[in-house]
Design brief:
single chain, 10 helices
Length: 291
């Protein structure tokens, strides 16, 4: 049975996301359950000694987190290369631009490192501001930041000149009719010309009444109209059913539960694995409260 490009795209994207998440989780477990974390923390602390004393904790934390993100991106590179290779088959793209994939992965690593360091900064601020309730405050702050980012990312790319109106009149008319039929509001479908948009890629941005569906240049150039329509319909369904907002709400609940569990683990058993003093506040243990 022949498989359309749209179906193959969605299948390969889900597979790549699953493999990437699994490899990232395996890397974190490897670091957490071996002396690697303490070694990396020691290296980061040593490198931070060259900075003023007040900045040393923040510098050491940034180096530690940044190194983990870079390692995760290095592990994920084979997955990205596989997805680009499979995504380019049966199209006019006969060769995979390995340099382009590597450049995209490097940009992802840089952006990911900055984002993760920002998340860690939010956690540290929540610990300082909310004490024992830091996990709830941090979850709320991360949820709000995610919604703001979803609202601005499409507008930011358009303002930066990294998107273009579709140059295929028949496809533009078909997509406009699709948006009107589905009830997608003021969603604008545009070609994504950013260097990060290599291969066959599509994404939806924005929450509320407006938004963007961004299609990579390779998809706009190589895919047939009906196949592009299938992919856009899939992305529009997320927007119409408010899946992005629901995802953020679910993520906030998961963050809250995970951070609370982390807080309890550190408080109750942190001394057994050398994690004493890793929080910015001192949460009383059950033994202390009974005194």
């Amino acid at each position: 049975m022949n498989e359309s490009k749209a179906t193959r795209y969605q299948r390969l994207r889900r597979r790549a996301q699953l493999i990437s998440a699994a490899t990232g989780a395996a890397l974190l477990l490897l670091v957490a359950l071996t002396p690697g974390a303490q070694w990396l923390a020691g290296v980061a602390a040593t490198q931070a000694l060259a900075w003023p004393a007040r900045l040393q904790p923040a510098i050491a934390l940034s180096l530690f987190v940044g190194a983990l993100v870079l390692a995760a991106e290095a592990v994920a590179f084979p997955v990205s290369l596989y997805a680009a290779t499979r995504g380019g088959r049966r199209s006019s793209q006969t060769r995979v631009d390995v340099r382009g994939v590597m450049a995209s992965q490097a940009r992802d690593a840089l952006v990911g490192a900055v984002a993760v360091i920002g998340v860690v900064a939010v956690l540290r601020f929540a610990m300082w501001a909310a004490g024992g309730w830091w996990w709830a405050v941090a979850s709320a702050m991360l949820a709000v930041a995610s919604l703001v980012a979803m609202r601005l990312i499409g507008k930011g790319l358009t303002a930066a000149g990294q998107t273009l109106a579709l140059a295929r009149p028949a496809l533009s008319e078909a997509l406009a009719a699709l948006v009107a039929r589905i009830g997608g509001g003021s969603v604008d479908v545009r070609e994504w010309t950013s260097p990060d948009a290599g291969g066959a890629r599509a994404l939806v941005t924005g929450v509320g009444g407006g938004g963007h569906v961004l299609l990579s240049r390779d998809m706009v150039r190589d895919w047939a109209d009906d196949e592009v329509v299938v992919v856009v319909a899939h992305e529009l369904s997320h927007h119409v059913h408010h899946d992005l907002v629901r995802t953020v709400a679910l993520d906030a609940v998961l963050w809250c539960a995970a951070l609370w569990c982390a807080d309890r683990v550190v408080v109750l058993w942190g001394g057994l694995v050398g994690l004493q003093g890793c929080l910015l506040y001192t949460s009383p243990s059950p033994r202390d409260r009974t005194r």
